[in-house]
Give the backbone structure.
Amino acid sequence: MMNLDFPNSKHDESRQGEALVLDKPVLKNNGRKLYIESYGCAMNFSDSEIVASILADQGFETTSDFKEADVIFINTCSIRENAEQRVRNRLKEFKVSKMRNPGMVVGVLGCMAERLKAKFLEEEKLVDVVVGPDAYRDLPNLIEQVDGGQKAVNVLLSREETYADISPVRLNSNGINAFVSIMRGCDNMCSFCVVPFTRGRERSRDAFSIVKECGDLFNAGYKEVTLLGQNVDSYKWTSEEGITMNFAGLLEFVALINPKLRVRFSTSHPKDITDEVLLTMKKYDNICKYIHLPIQSGNSRILELMNRTYDRAWYMNRIDAIRRILPGCAISTDVITGFCSETEEEHQETLSMMDYVQYDFAYMFMYSERPGTLAAKRYADDIPEEVKGRRLREIVDKQQAHSYKRLLEQIGQVQQVLIEKRSKKSELDYSGRSDKNATVVFPADDRFKPGDYVDVLIEKCTTATLIGKIIG
Ligand code: SF4
């Protein structure tokens, strides 16, 4: 689970059950309404936009109220047990609607569907259709099967499917930020991770289709694209003419669309992130100076058991390269504590790595064994829950101190902020994000609106937010 995360797109623990509404007119309305709820990573949310696009072409209109839906889909996450439990609880809530409207179709999409396959239909009687992440083109047929009184399953994984030709409709869009998938699947086989089993082999999408999608978004008024992949650094696409493009090349290609289009990406893999990528980031002001670089553990033995294919020294070398080429670049990470056989000294090495990097932000979890993974087959989940809990608290405490320190360092700086919306706390304030992905709140000014870039003088901060005022 490389977390494909941004503050507006947290992983399964923090982003949950968001209902999505289509902002594209449906040309040939079939009178049926679709409700999609997504869990987990940004890739899932991006996939829901592909699903909505496929069904909009079939005449489905989206709704944000599941009670009026004819088709309910939950796009699921399998990364942790509690993510799956939340989906099961949610299904119970749909039961009453289904009793009221027996013709309603309830479908489970995504990683949990892929992991459990037809077993899902036995375990959850309410569910009519189970569809894996590579089978969304088949949804119209599957819905037809259900309309005909059968249950339907398609969990075939593909080596080619990238949905490159499907122009995803934007769901619940603010018209400013959009996710763009550049690849699917993962070949890395980290021992704790279900993704290689639920999302299949790695495939890179046609670079021209990516650039076209980003260009179309910019022309439609969007100001920021986030290029998504489980491991963007292993992006590799070869054209029919034999021209090969790597991630640095793609990044440059997208950055050149327009200097006013901000470019973000996630997720990087420490074994694959190259100096070429860092130098490309340096070359273009519109590529945000923010890298999510999951460490998972600061100890080389645990990293080997996790099959991460880098060690502590390699990771530090990559951090040093980022600091050398991109001074001031924000870095975030993922940490798993209490992995199989992790000793106290090894846990201390994770803490010392955190001190070394002083991350701006981190997603931190206790190890949770997932059925079917290499770790579940090979290693005992032998760290007691209370030890995992205590180690996690130590990690979280340290990260909170580092996050706060990183924000304090920015006081007095002038930062370019993309205004995204009115602040949740006060209608009088705007909220936006800096290049380094920090949330910045400042008094609204009628001269500017969401989607505009403004220079903000950072005057103070809370533990999670920068506060300032527009200058100039
Ligand atoms: S296998 Fe590893 S690299 Fe691939 S998605 Fe899982 S954690 Fe990320």
